[in-house]
Design a protein that fits this description.
By secondary structure, the chain is an alpha/beta fold. The chain has a single domain, classed as Rossmann fold (3-Layer(aba) Sandwich). Helix content is 22%, strand content 30%. The protein is built from three helices and nine strands, in the order βαβαβββαββββ. The strands form two sheets. Strands 4-3-2-5-6-7 form a six-stranded mixed beta sheet, sandwiched between helices. A three-stranded antiparallel beta sheet has the order 1-9-8. β2, α2 and β3 form a beta-alpha-beta unit. α1 crosses α2. The chain is globular, with a radius of gyration of 16 Å. It binds inosinic acid and magnesium ion. Inosinic acid binds next to β5, α3 and β8.
């Protein structure tokens, strides 16, 4: 059995989306350097592209790690924080959380709860992809890249069982075809 990958979003569309998000952030932050917090592992490529497209100077980059998906394609429902940031990095700062996908919203809710407890001056969310169909908790997305249907996707940093992160385009992963 092999995974079947069907193209969904081209690298060109991703690049245009990243530019638009960076412009929107520049417009809003201008002279207020934000602290950018990326969510590992899925957002690492998006984060790298996004901050290089931004003109606004960044105060610092931090990384957090959340886990909700095991090795499967269905969220387990419980989110744990596996790597946290120092509270001093967040206190009094304008913080932008950078996610790859908002699906059920549970991961972002957890991250917002933890980061919010460190008393940032402001806390905003930037996500490359929004999958609103399976939302379990309401999430306000301040900077939203592309809204996608409820499909399992891979590529551009996003994995299935740690595979496919290196693909420059985004694909849907279709059910394996039995031989
Ligand atoms: P949520 O907690 O359900 O919103 O899930 C968010 C996280 O689950 C994302 O940051 C991704 O890491 C992962 N995820 C959600 N949908 C997909 C997908 O289609 N492919 C791969 N990972 C996904
Ligand atoms: Mg993620």
């Amino acid at each position: 059995m092999t995974d079947r990958l069907v193209p969904l979003i081209s690298q060109q569309t991703i690049a245009e989306t990243v530019k638009r998000l960076a412009r929107d952030i520049d417009r809003d932050y201008g002279d207020r350097p934000p602290v950018v917090v990326g969510v590992l592992k899925g957002s690492f490529i998006f984060l790298a592209d996004l901050i290089r497209a931004m003109q606004t100077p960044i105060k610092r980059v931090e990384l957090i790690k959340l886990s909700s998906y095991g090795s499967g394609t269905v969220s387990s429902g419980t989110v744990s924080m596996q790597l946290d940031v120092p509270a001093e990095a967040i206190a009094g700062q304008d913080v932008i959380l950078v996610e790859d996908i908002v699906d059920t919203g549970l991961s972002v809710a957890k991250a917002f709860q933890v980061l919010g407890s460190y008393s940032p001056q402001s806390l905003k969310l930037c996500t490359l992809l929004d999958k609103p169909d399976r939302r379990k908790v309401p999430v306000t997305i301040d900077y939203c890249g592309i809204t996608i249907p409820d499909r399992f996707i891979v590529g551009y940093g996003i994995d299935f069982g740690e595979q496919y992160r290196q693909l420059p385009d985004i694909y849907t992963l279709e059910r394996p075809i039995e031989a």
